Amino acid sequence: MGLRRVLLLGEGNFSFSAALCGAQGTHVVATCYESEEEAAGAAGAARSIRRLRDSGAEVLFSVDCTRLGEHFLPGKREFHRIYFNFPHCGRKAGVVKNRQLLARFFHSCTEVLAQEGEIHVALCNGQGGTPVDQPRREWHNSWQIVAVAAGAGFILSHVHPFKAETIEGYKCTGYRSQDKSFCVEGALNHVFTRSTAPLCFTPLSCKTQLGGQKVSFQVPQVLVDKINRGFLEENSSHPVRTIKEKLSAGLSQVFPLQNSSSCLPLLHQGHPGGVCHSNIFWITLSPGEAPSTEKMSQDLADTVLFSHFGQDTDKNVQEGCPGPQQFYLRPSLLPHAQAIIKKRAFSPGTIEVLSGPVFRKCRITPHSMPVFHEMLIVLVVSRGTESSCIQMLVENINTTLNSLHQGVSGVKPTISLQEATSFVTELNDFAAFEWQLGEIQHFLCVGTDPDPSGSCVGVIRTAPDEFKSHELVVVSFSLNLDLLAMLLCGISDWRMLWTSDRRFLRQFPGGELRLFKPFSLYPPSYVHDVSFWLPDGEGFDEVAFHTLARRVSGEMVVSIQLKDNFQQAGTGRRSLCYRVTFQSCDRALGGRGAAEMQLRLREEVQQHLGVTLR
């Protein structure tokens, strides 16, 4: 790496700059807002300026931190670090003016900061408005530094104490624009970095194998950044691949194992019977590319062992589901497993492993995913031995997870079996959707709480092997690899698994699992309400509303809560009011950006869901 360029702004007596100068490989540019004559009048300033110049540093005066592009020519920019200690508009300026100063400062930094540079802003205790401030001021009475920086495209990546006593010769000055010191006890240094650019949802066409031929289709906008990411491919270091490979390796030590995940088509055709229509991503193929129904029937079995696929077709047609020539993104790998079982002869005790992304429309929660990586483990066993085989598989999975946990020190995700009896209405979205696919014998839950709500990471099904002999039983384990990765690596938000920010995968070199360290701290949230009248006599598809919010915001809606359900007397008209919270986990989101998303959401809700805005 070449010479590191460091810019210091708003220096009072230049004592902080003087303490930094002379470091090997670093070029210091120290500046202040005052003229040279005014600055030299501060106590000790002349001595610090002389030391800076003697060490080869640049000292500049009358530099406005909100107009940095005007002070540095293009060839003199690209600062690797920018310091702004205890910024203040001067005298008795209030929080609003100081927020405005910071906003203009951050926007100015975009012109002179290196791509992977850092901005260090030191603030007195309580000013920043983050949870690290102790005591913490009320939000409206703070400088709201994280939200202000987000408006310019920066995220808070570190916060640590500003230890003035460790900086040789440093003396704070500038209290109320005077040559007086002020209290820096409890002060914090806030380190900001550039956020990745906002997602650009340009239309995307995708190719897949279907009915013996390649077809292309338009990817739903909400999935544009998630399709074909290759997290399970051989050269991937993503945590979901590491977990999948380790689980497979563990299983292969106990059972003969076959892997059939290479060319599974993304699309299914017809009706996913038993599955709620609003949970499916329906797809229209590009013109002239639909395979023949006869060819499709040869490649995808109509009979499905573990699910209700293929049932209730007449009912689905009556309820307005798409016809048999419609296609949808696979919500499960079960049909592929059943097709493989129908074609091949399996010896009892042989394991078939399928894995890949599956797609399901769902409500917005921290653990509800419109796409995740499913690992499907299928085992054909002799009748009467299924219980012991299930127990053996669970123990094998736990052994693998325990070995992974030892190197991570995150949550120890011990899997336990929970009977699928009375918990159907209390399940998380993953488990609830699995129930739609067919009867479940056991839930695979983390911990020992008998309520699997929020803790279900997989399900177990058993069924007679109808394609060979009723003396054999097919056992299937469906695991959500994304939930396991979140638990093992301490990732609190599923969206982080799909980030395009390289700082995520850098934490897992060579696929090694580690405890995840967030690179965007205390992201600001913005709350907006939307209320509307429903069409007369019609219900409301809440999943469609959540999916629309995902698409409009680019997955920056973190919560949607029903706040009011009102029915007008006399007319019977019904009105709903939802509280929508916008927050990003990995990129900058400012207040203006959230407000623009809210306006688009209102427009789209009225246009696509047939409601009337209030």
From TrEMBL:
It catalyses: tRNA(Phe) + L-phenylalanine + ATP = L-phenylalanyl-tRNA(Phe) + AMP + diphosphate + H(+). Its main location: mitochondrion. GO terms for molecular function: ATP binding; phenylalanine-tRNA ligase activity; rRNA (uridine-N3-)-methyltransferase activity. It is found in: Mitochondrion matrix. Pfam families: BMT5-like, FDX-ACB. Keywords: Aminoacyl-tRNA synthetase, ATP-binding, Ligase, Mitochondrion, Nucleotide-binding, Protein biosynthesis, Transit peptide. GO terms for biological process: rRNA base methylation; translation. Its EC number is 6.1.1.20. GO terms for cellular component: mitochondrial matrix. It is an enzyme of class 6 (ligase). Residues 521-614 form the FDX-ACB domain. Belongs to the class-II aminoacyl-tRNA synthetase family. This is phenylalanine--tRNA ligase. The lineage of its organism: Eukaryota, Metazoa, Chordata, Craniata, Vertebrata. The gene is Fdxacb1.
